[in-house]
Structure formats: C-alpha cells, structure tokens
Amino acid sequence: ERERADTERQNLTLLDEKNRRTQMYLTYARKIYEELENVYRTSEEEIRNRLQDTINDIFKQIYEGGLYLTIDEKYHISVYANDYDGDVETSTAQSISVIFAFITGIIKMARDNRNASDDDAKLLSSEPYPLVMDAPLSAFDKRRIKTVCEALPNTAEQVIIFIKDTDGELAEEYMGDKIGCRHYFDKKNEFETVLV
After folding, report:
1. Could you tell me which residues come within 8 angstroms of residue 184 by beta carbon, excluding any fewer than 6 positions away?
2. Residues 39-97: tens digit of each pLDDT
3. How far is it, in rounded angstroms, from Cα 102 to Cα 94?
4. For labelling alongside 79, which of 14, 35, 43, 49 has CA 20 to 30 A away?
5. Which three-class secondary structure state does DSSP give residue 104?
6. Cβ proximity of 133 and 160 under 8 Å
7. Considering only CA atoms, which of 157, 46, 61 is closest in space to residue 108?
8. pTM value surpassing 0.70
9. 58-94 burial string, b = 16+ CB within 10 Å, else e?
C-alpha cells in the first residue's frame, strides 16, 4: 500500500514542470553518485591489495619465515602463519615489524606512484615526505637490525632516525654508505640540550 501511495505521489509531483525538472536532476545525481561509488570501491580495493602486497614484501625482508599479513576493508592488519589456521599472536619485535612494514609500505607506494607514468597513479602520489623514526631498532636482535637497515633506504627518499649509541653503531655499520648526515644531542643539564 505504501509503495502504491509513493508511486501515486511521484506521478502527481511530475505533473508540475518545476517538480519534473527537480526529479530529473535528482535521477542524474543518483546515477553520478552510483558511478563514482563504483569507481571508488574498485580503486580502493585495488590499492588496498597493492598495499598488502607491498607490506608483505617488506615484512618478509625483515622476517624470513612463515608469517604473512592481510588487510581487511577497515585496514585492520592480521598476522597469519603459512601452516596454521587463524590469527597468530606476535612478539613485541614482530609487532614493531608489522608497524614498520605498514608505514614504509605506504611511503614506498606513494614514492612509486609519483614516479609512475600513468595518470591514475599520479593522482595517488604525494609530496616526498621523510620517514622519521624514534629508536626503530631497539626491539630487534642484530640479524633483524641488519635486515631493517637494508630495507630502510629503499622505502623513503629521506630517513631521519633518532637512535641511542649502541643501536646507532650497528645502524652505522649496516648503512654506512647511505648515511648523509649525522648529528648528536649534547645534554648540558636538565634544561639545555645542544644539537651538534
């Protein structure tokens, strides 16, 4: 009954020229919205899949093993093992590796899109931002520090790391030729620190 009443009401509104024009504009607007929504959904899914692949490539550089990552529609990341069904509980170092892989994956995709030749990729590109990290190596063992140091220069055009002495010496050993500039914080007292 309600559908019949709605149809009748719509037919009555179309008798007026102004209402007919408004209805036509509304139909056009709905069609444009549907087309844009379809393009967005398709593009977003494709980009999410590319991001997932990029993150997995970076994650595998750090952790050779049977772990891989998936990203759902809301960009929640889950870690799985190749020979186990269900989520895997990650250690602190593995969790940091997941975060590291996610951040560097986004930066790497933006960088790749900026250098791409097609127009669609250029729409997704952004300014080259530096990757700034505070003590990114402190949760890793020496072998993982080496793999992270090898992956870092390949992801962003500029990487700025705040690091303590012990991790810094290892990072310098593994990234020596990639280091462009080095500064130190010289703490004079509780209120004054000088950048050297």
Report:
1. 195, 196
2. 888 888 888 899 899 888 888 877 766 778 888 888 888 888 776 666 666 677 777 77
3. 12
4. 43
5. helix
6. yes
7. 157
8. no
9. bbebbbeeebbbebeeeeeeebeeeeeeeeeeeeeeb
